[in-house]
Design a protein that fits this description.
eight-stranded mixed β-sheet; globular; 2,3-Dihydroxybiphenyl 1,2-Dioxygenase, domain 1; 158 residues
């Protein structure tokens, strides 16, 4: 078992991958939604997330499974997603991987005690009524994840 798997096993309540978030360049969201539709995905949610995120989100599902694709289009130049696109030479790509948990607060507390570098000061409101927090890609100096992690609690899954 890899060290990432071991690190994540210690987080209480991780149930499954909620979504994989993909950054798309401004103006490309509609085209990306159509491209995923050709693969059998259907759009189940759309929202503009303001605050520090500054993104337009389209959430896509294939079949009836719990795993989703989240397309993120930056709304401003200050959006973290735009900064990711800039770091990628103007191309979109993987923004983060989100894990579904039973309780964001319990996961937050356990990860904080275990020394994870958490970006948010506390779990906060996410899109579609969720509670979320983000974990830094270099969170574990001994075994960095290498990608941004989002922890998601969905109130409908309780």
């Amino acid at each position: 078992m890899s060290s990432v798997e071991e690190d994540l096993k210690a987080v209480p309540g991780i149930r499954f991958v909620d979504h994989v978030a993909i950054a798309v360049k401004q103006g490309n969201l509609e085209g990306q939604v159509k491209a995923y539709a050709m693969l059998g995905f259907r759009e189940i949610h759309r929202e503009e997330v303001l605050g520090g995120d500054q993104v337009r989100e389209a959430l896509l599902q294939i079949g009836n499974g719990p795993n989703l694709i989240q397309l993120l289009e930056p709304l401003t130049q200050d959006s973290p997603v735009q900064k990711l696109i800039d770091r990628n030479g103007g191309c979109g790509g993987l923004a983060h991987v989100a894990f579904r948990v039973e309780s964001a607060q319990k996961a937050f507390d356990a990860m904080k005690v275990s020394g994870f570098q958490i970006i948010d000061k506390a779990p906060r409101k996410g899109s579609r009524g969720t509670t979320v927090f983000f974990v830094h890609p270099k969170s574990r100096a001994d075994n960095p994840f290498g990608f941004l992690i989002e922890i998601v609690e969905d109130p409908e899954s309780k």
